[in-house]
Design a protein that fits this description.
By secondary structure, this protein is of the alpha+beta class. The chain contains 3 helices and 8 strands, in the order βαββαββββαβ. It has 2 domains: 99 residues, Aldehyde Oxidoreductase, domain 3; 47 residues, no CATH class. It is 26% helix and 33% strand. It has a 4-stranded antiparallel beta sheet with strand order 2-7-1-8, with helices on one face. Strands 3-6 form a two-stranded antiparallel sheet. Strands 4-5 form a two-stranded antiparallel sheet.
């Protein structure tokens, strides 16, 4: 059987909410997804890549839109050696300095040390106003990743 996950990951891959903010945001999300099997904050020891699983289609340069394919895989392998402590890259297509976290992932993906995670949320969308409320509660802008495993 397959599962769906909604991961909400802070824009800054190294940022973590304090316990009070995390609990407030999780309680808000529980109310938004009453059919979910589980809602909670996942804290990681190191930066982790939260991907879209089977939803993943491609990775593109944030500047020129070029598909990064094999180059991205090699860049990920290099960054993984240091547990993603350094996400800095120079794009192969237009030689711009950026971060693996700032590339354009189709479907969205993100790097982070924590995630507000919903297991089998029972919905496939999150409205802009709902996201804004969650971001206010947790204290950070969030990237929304819909993962299918």
């Amino acid at each position: 059987m397959s599962d769906n996950y909604l991961h909400m990951v802070p824009d800054d891959p190294y940022w973590r909410p304090d316990k009070t903010a995390a609990e407030e945001a999780a309680n808000l999300v529980r109310g938004l997804f009453p059919q979910a099997e589980h809602v909670g904050i996942e804290y990681k020891e190191a930066v982790t890549f939260f991907d879209a699983g089977a939803n993943t289609e491609s990775v593109h340069c944030a500047f020129c839109g070029s598909e990064l394919g094999d180059w991205w895989g090699n860049a990920m392998d290099q960054a993984a050696v240091s547990d993603f402590s350094d996400l800095a890259i120079v794009t192969p297509c237009c030689s711009k300095s950026t971060s693996l976290n700032d590339l354009r992932y189709v479907w969205p993906a993100a790097f982070g040390m924590c995630s507000l995670t919903v297991v089998n949320p029972g919905a496939t969308t999150l409205g802009a106003e709902e996201l804004r409320r969650i971001e206010q509660a947790i204290g950070s802008p969030l990237k929304v990743i819909w993962q299918h495993l």
